[in-house]
Structure formats: structure tokens, C-alpha cells
């Protein structure tokens, strides 16, 4: 699902949308820097029919899009420059299977282009506008990186803090009670972690690894949990530790 943010470039609000592939910027918003909103579509049409623009778009697609239709691209390139040649973004996408630019309907609607292409469009509008666009885009990415770091720190705290309370309870109550052999003392720690995994996520750590082999070697299910899930997990660990101290059995603790 796309995530939209707004940056302000020379008093113009520009939408940035994060898609599966990368960040896309609304060039319809950007066209307002050169013309009013009612003529933004004309600005984009005039830009995309330009031969140098088509060569840039085609080269970008050939680098990043294995499904790009090069034959159709060559046809457009041959037509470019003729007075009778017209081209819309929708025509470009439909005929060449392009992914670098597209038209979005509804809220936040308009023509969106991958950031590489959006910066090229900004050059056609104004080199000064392009510089301010890059500056604001970089500021946005720095803010997002800082937010991600804060979220990662919070996740790390939630993952480790109350987990120690549970492991202490296992060490002090379960291991002495069931007299685990030295080489099997790791087992109750893993079993208690999985008890909470099943209670919260609905599957064990092994089941998650089996379902996600490409991730299993370097991470676990808790690395991909949300802040809310980790908050619940942290509370469950405290609650489970207290029930272990009270001598409640595993089935009883799981049901509770």
C-alpha cells in the first residue's frame, strides 16, 4: 500500500508516494511551478513527447524494468519530433509496459514519476526548482531515517527488557524444578519463548522460519513485529514470569 507524504518546494505542495519499488513524486504538483493546475497535464504532455525525454525514460526502463517493451519504445522515439506526434503518460505506460511513471486516480491523484525521472522533469521546469526539490526530498528522507532509528531503538528495548524477567523466572524456578540436564537447559527458555509466540502470533519460531527461509538465517519473527505487538509481548513476558513463580503449569499459563 502506498504511503503519501507532502513536501513544500518554493511554496508548492508536492506529494511523495512510497510504492513497492521506490519513492515516486507527483509531477502534476510540480508542473504547478511552471503553469497553473489546470494546465499541468499540458506541461507533462509537452515534456513527454520530447525526444530527449523519451530517450531518458526508455533508458531508465531498460535499466530497471525487465518487462519493458523496447520495440514499442523505438517506435515512439522515431515519431518524436514530428509535428503530428502526440503522447500521453497513459499511452506510454500502456504501450511499453513502463513502470517509472504512472497516472493515479482519486485522492492524491495525478501523474507520478520515480524520483530519478521526477528530478529530470524538474530540470525541464526550472533548474532552481530542481535544486529546492532535491533539498526538500533529502530532508524528508533524513526525517524518515531518524524516525526508523527511534522505532528500532524502541523495538530493541521492548524485545529485551522484559524478556530478561522471563528468563530469570525460568532459570530460578523451572530449571531447578524439573532438574534439566546440563546440555538441555536451553530447552525451557525456547519453550517459554514459543509459548508466547503461539499465544501472540499464532505460530512457533520454527514455523516462522520454515515459512520464511530467506529471512530465517539472520532474524526471527519478533524482528518483524510491530511496536504494538512488542508492547503486548513485553507485558505477556512479565505476566508469564509471575505465573511461573506462582507454580502454574504451562497449559494453564498458555490459556490465561
Q: How many distinct beta strands? A: 5
Number of helices: 12
Widest sheet: strand order? 1-2-3-5-4
Give the distance, in angstroms, between the N- and C-terminal Cα atoms.
36 Å
Mean pLDDT: 87
Oligomer: single chain
Report low-confidence residues grouped into runs of 5 or more: none
Pairing-aware structural class of the strands and helices?
A: alpha+beta
Number of domains: 2
Biggest sheet descriptor: 5 strands, antiparallel
Rg (CA only): 27 Å
Percent helix:
55-70%
Morphology call: elongated
Beta fraction of the residues?
A: 5-15%
What are the secondary-structure elements, in order, as H or E?
A: EEEHHHHHEEHHHHHHH
Please specify the SSE layout and strand pairing.
Blueprint: E1 3-9, E2 12-18, E3 23-26, H1 27-31, H2 40-48, H3 51-64, H4 70-79, H5 89-96, E4 101-104, E5 110-114, H6 115-125, H7 127-178, H8 186-200, H9 205-211, H10 213-216, H11 227-245, H12 250-255
Antiparallel strand pairs: 1-2, 2-3, 3-5, 4-5
General description of the model:
The radius of gyration is 27 Å and the shape is elongated. 62% of the residues lie in helices and 11% in strands. The protein has helices at residues 27-31, 40-48, 51-64, 70-79, 89-96, 115-125, 127-178, 186-200, 205-211, 213-216, 227-245, 250-255; strands at residues 3-9, 12-18, 23-26, 101-104, 110-114. The chain contains twelve helices and five strands. The protein folds into two domains: 3-125, no CATH class; 150-255, no CATH class. The chain is of the alpha+beta class and 256 residues long. A hairpin with a 5-residue loop joins strand 4 and strand 5 (110-114). The model has no long low-confidence stretch (mean pLDDT 87). Helix 6 (115-125) packs antiparallel against helix 7 and helix 7 (127-178) runs parallel beside helix 11 (227-245). Strands 1-2-3-5-4 form a five-stranded antiparallel sheet.
